[in-house]
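hiii, so i know i said id send this last week but things got crazy w the move. better late than never?? heres the sequnce for the chain we talked about at the cafe, plus the structure i predicted for it. fair warning i was half asleep when i ran it
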Amino acid sequence: MLSMRHKKAVTTEVKKRYTKETKKGKTTILDEFIALTGYNRYGELPILGILL
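okay and structure toks below
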């Protein structure tokens, strides 16, 4: 698992990539983010600032 400081750094980078990506690419990015951080899918969406 990552430390909180590393999770924040990863979240910042993922958020930048996510906003520029197509829908199919966004799914891949979210899957990678889940695997790396250990967050669940719906717990991560607010962290990334994504509205359902």
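btw The longest helix spans residues 4-20. thought thatd interest u
miss u guys!!
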